[in-house]
Amino acid sequence: MTSVAVEAPTPPTVRARHFVLAVLALAMGGFAIGTTEFVTMGLLPEIAEGVGVSIPTAGRVISAYALGVVVGARCWPTSGRGSRVAACCWCWWDGSGSATR
Question: Are 50 and 61 in contact (CB under 8 A)?
């Protein structure tokens, strides 16, 4: 009998340039999203005056926007059913650390 050596498949390698570009894109996106809330809070009196509402009402609108960003950031990736990303996001959402109930 002869034995045949079977090589295990090697995992794909990520090129360093693609990795750096992906991290840079994520960093820029996080900075842009974070900046929108802070800049908007700094412009709160001008926004309230421009829209014609009180400052507390304008503050609630900004808080509602920020809450929408928080919820949307967790729900948007889960739109792909059955993916590992969806399972990870739901674990992050409920804080349980497990994908099963």
Answer: no
- CA separation for the pair 17, 26 (Å, rounded): 14
Structure tokens at 52: 């014609």
- For residue 42, give its domain range: 28-94
Say how many domains are in the chain. 1
Residue 65: count other Cβ atoms within 10 Å of its Cβ.
13
Q: For 29-80, how does the pLDDT look when each residue is reduced to its tens digit (9 = 90+)? A: 888 877 877 888 889 999 899 999 999 999 998 888 888 877 777 676 666 6
**Which DSSP symbol is given to 81?**
T
Cβ 54 vs Cβ 43: under 8 Å: no
- Full-model pTM: 0.49
**What's the CA gap between 64 and 15, in Å, rounded?**
40
CB 40 within 8 Å of CB 47: yes
